[in-house]
Amino acid sequence: MSGEIKGAPIRNIAIIAHVDHGKTTLVDALLEQSGIFREGEAVPTCVMDSNDLERERGITILSKNTAVDYNGIRINIVDTPGHSDFGGEVERVLGMVDGCLLIVDANEGPMPQTRFVLKKALEKGLRPIVFVNKIDRARVDPEQAVDKVLDLFLELGADDDQCDFTYLFGSGMAGYAKPDMATESDNMKPLFDAILRHVPPPVGDPTKPLQLQVTTLDYSDFLGRIMIGRVHNGTIVGGQSVALIRDDGSIKRGRISKLLGFQGLQRVEIPEARAGDLVAVAGFDEVNIGETIACPDHPEALPLIKVDEPTLQMTFVVNDSPFAGKEGKFVTSRQLRDRLQRELLTNVALRVEDTDSPDRFSVCGRGELHLGILIETMRREGFEFQVSQPQVIFRTIDGTPHEPFETLVMDVPEEAVGSCIEKLGMRKGEMQNMEATSDGRTQLEFVVPSRGLIGFRGEFIRASRGEGIMSHSFLDYRPMQGDFDARRNGVLIAFEEGTATFYALKGAEDRGQFFITPGTKVYKGMIVGEHNRPPDLELNVCKAKQVTNIRSAGAEVLDTLQSPIQMTLERALEYIGPDEMLEVTPESIRLRKMPVKKPAKR
Ligand SMILES: Nc1nc2c(ncn2[C@@H]2O[C@H](COP(=O)(O)OP(=O)(O)OP(=O)(O)O)[C@@H](O)[C@H]2O)c(=O)[nH]1
Ligand SMILES: [Mg+2]
Q1: Which single residue of 16, 140, 336, 433 has CA 20 to 30 Å from 3?
Q2: What confidence category does residue 1 fall into, taking pLDDT thresholds of 50, 70 and 90?
Q3: Which residue in 227, 432, 504 sits closest to 348, CA to CA?
Q4: Could you list which residues have their CB under 5 Å from ion ligand 2?
């Protein structure tokens, strides 16, 4: 029987929460206070959000390992992403730790993704420590947040032990934690102590044959494929021969070319690691999540981990718009294909398939953010391509068609409640709960088909006049709902190639809202705005004024042009219609109407 490992003082903990509740900021504080940063050294914020997009958007996309030493004990910490598209990643990470810290924003209380991650933690038998965060802010009710978390534990069927959870209050940003609101504290010591006390030491037997399960994949040009996971049993030594047990049961022999441990923000080469520790190893090019690295003499696989199936599909197409190839560095079908294939090395929830046309690739992922980040990353690397409207992936379960559903929580001003309920009703949403919160606001909870949420955010922002907060999280596949009409208004389409003029835009202002400004280059078929009525409308946006002897008038009149809708990538992905394409280049985001294909003549 395996038991606590003697002589290996380790704790493994995952930090989980709803998006933006402060996981990464808290990890910063733990790193800082454990003495990783030298005295006087400036500590950057959210150091764990290491890639450019993460820093820019202030979100965590990939889970990341770090480790700190506290009182002679090594605490391996895994920071996880909070956005629901990455829920599968959180679930996998929970499989390699022995405890978790559930962070809840004192103001917002539990949100959809809090429920999702807590459910997964409870299913894994973990006993979460609850950290009520951001209590430095005015108008928070931390005690109420604890009550709501307890309700959630009960609702999710937690056992008595789990419901008797330890909780702390604090602020990751201000760097303190305390056991109750009455106590004063200026540091994280109470949290460190709670981790040591309540997170059980890892179980596993270092004398048994090696078993390491791969939970995360990484890639470096230098080391090639990197596998991150937990040593469940045995001991692993750099350079040793091992067997990789593939998910189909086949065995591949190889060698650990590099063994790395975590220390603060770095991965450092270590000579060996024992059962219970989290490590990164290199040595195999082909490997999938959930596979086991084992002792070559006694290869025994650990139970496979399931990777969430994709829920959203998009087609990536070589750009063939009239402006194709003008702005991108990588534009060919070959380049596009290679790049997508390379993404598969680390992006485990992504699927890429060839289609019957060499210029089109079917790309499936976990949601609009998951695919949106890929598109944004590629465009920054210099790629130019087009994508189609995202489509929800249906599935047949027990012979009947099913579609993905999500839990949606909205926090809106009272006067927006009616129109939100109405809009979701049209999208086959079902209300689960409605509760008045502070300051005349209302929290609404819905279960709604994912299909109904495509393009909903824009409407929601309008309905709540920009004051609503919404967040949603994948629930499960349920029987398919009927069709519903969630059509937007028609679009304004440029009628010929040229440069948009102030005169023309001004003249057509009463037709709708533009996405472009005077000076924008347009082509025939390019979508330049939203019509204020359902049909599409073609118009000439390049018309020049005939008489131009009143020269100074321009500047004054310019001020009176309505400001255009900024079509960001995210907004465009939500907006795009079925017969449209989104053209993505390093410099531009353009929507275009695709010509209707006439059926071939017989
Ligand atoms: N007032 C206050 N703000 C905080 C605190 N902790 C985090 N924040 C702010 O909350 C926002 C989100 O913080 P992050 O640490 O990035 O949150 P996260 O949970 O890692 O977010 P994701 O990784 O995207 O899920 C940032 O703007 C932080 O500055 C806190 O203790 N007090
Ligand atoms: Mg984060």
Answers
A1: 16
A2: very low
A3: 227
A4: 23-24, 60
467-511 tens-digit pLDDT: 888 888 888 899 998 887 666 789 999 999 999 999 999 999 999
Q: What are 257-304's pLDDT values in tens digits?
A: 999 999 877 889 999 999 999 999 999 989 999 999 999 999 999 998
For 438, how many CA atoms within 13 A lie in the half-sphere containing its CB?
7
- For residue 246, how far is the Cα from the chain centroid? 28
CA distance 201 to 98: 7
Task: Tell me the two tokens of residue 374.
Answer: 């890929």
The amino acid present at 572, given as its one-letter code, is: A
Measured in whole angstroms, the distance separating CA 181 from the mean position of its chain's CA atoms is 33
Spatial separation of the C-alpha atoms in residues 235 and 420, rounded to whole Å: 56
Query: Confidence band (pLDDT; 50, 70, 90) for 170?
Result: very high
**Nearest ligand atom owner, CA of 18:** 1
pLDDT at 56: 80
Q: Whose CA is nearest to atom 2 of ligand 1?
A: 134
Q: At 422, phi and psi to the nearest 5?
A: -65, -45
**Of all protein residues, whose CA lies closest to atom 8 belonging to ligand 1?**
22
Kindly report, residue by residue over 404-439, the tens digit of the pLDDT: 999 898 989 889 999 999 999 989 999 999 988 767
**Which ligand has its closest atom nearest to the C-alpha of 86?**
1
pLDDT(548) > 60: no
Nearest-CA residue for atom 13 of ligand 1: 22
CA–CA distance, 221 with 227 (Å, rounded to integer): 14
Q: Distance, CA 100 to ligand 1 centroid (Å)?
A: 18
- Both tokens of 50, joined, read 């290491």
Residue 4 has pLDDT above 80, yes or no: no
Angstrom distance (rounded) from CA 376 to CA 582:
13
Cα distance between residue 406 and residue 223, in whole Å? 39
Q: Which two tokens stand for residue 281?
A: 């190893």
User: Among 15, 18, 20, which is best to mutate for testing ligand 1, by the most ligand atoms less than 8 A from CB?
Assistant: 20
pLDDT at 558 over 90: no
Pocket of ligand 1 from Cβ distances under 6 Å: 17, 19-25, 46, 58-60, 81-83, 133-134, 136-137, 171-173
Contact 75, 195 (CB under 8 A): yes
The pLDDT tens digits of the residues spanning 198-217 come to 999 998 899 999 999 999 98
- Collapsed DSSP state (helix, strand, coil) of residue 99: strand
Relative to the alpha carbon of 106, which ligand is closest? 1
Dist. CA 168 → ligand 1 center (Å) = 17
> Relative to the alpha carbon of 28, which ligand is closest?
1
Residue 82 · residue 23 · CB < 8 Å: yes
Arithmetic mean of pLDDT over the chain:
89
pLDDT number for residue 88:
83
Instruction: Kindly give the number of the ligand 1 atom that is closest to the alpha carbon of 59.
Output: 24
- 43 — pLDDT class (breaks 50, 70, 90): low
Enter the pTM of the model: 0.85
Distance in Å, CA 353 to ligand 1 centroid? 37
Ligand 1 atom nearest the C-alpha of 45 is 29
Task: State which of 24, 25, 100, 373 you would mutate to test the pocket of ligand 1, scoring each by most atoms of that ligand within 8 A of its C-beta.
Answer: 25
